[in-house]
Design goal:
Serine Threonine Protein Phosphatase 5, Tetratricopeptide repeat, about 0% strand, mainly alpha, about 85% helix
Length: about 120
């Protein structure tokens, strides 16, 4: 998680300084690391949180640049990613871990909030 945190911190600094291209590159790296972690540890709440934060930061950057379609795509992507794992658990009739229920709830709320805010 150290590499993810470094990418996120650097991306946040660049975002705050208006260095959008550098922020984008760092946030993309954070997404890639978070996705790798999520593939290995999909029930770890810290990993689920990292995945959500990474995609949310990219979405925020896209909103800042008025690229609302790309922002929505980021939020939909993370929602679909979590939903895919949820469906795999449900298809095996396994109890859904709380971390996935939490992640599913958060990603859906973020997606719905975006729709309410930007998709009138």
């Amino acid at each position: 998680m150290i590499g993810w945190e470094q990418c996120l911190e650097c991306g946040n600094h660049c975002f705050a300084e208006g260095e959008n291209l550098s922020a984008y590159n760092n946030f993309q790296d954070a997404v890639a690391i978070a996705r790798q972690l999520f593939c290995k540890h999909p029930t770890n709440k810290c990993v689920v949180k990292a995945l959500l934060i990474s995609h949310q930061n990219l979405a925020d950057l896209h909103v800042k640049e008025q690229a609302l379609d790309l922002a929505y795509q980021e939020l939909a992507t993370v929602n679909n990613c979590i939903e895919d794992v949820v469906e795999r658990y449900q298809s095996c009739r396994r109890k859904l871990p709380d971390s996935l229920l939490w992640g599913k709830s958060i990603s859906l709320k973020k997606l719905l909030l975006f729709e309410q805010t930007y998709c009138h």
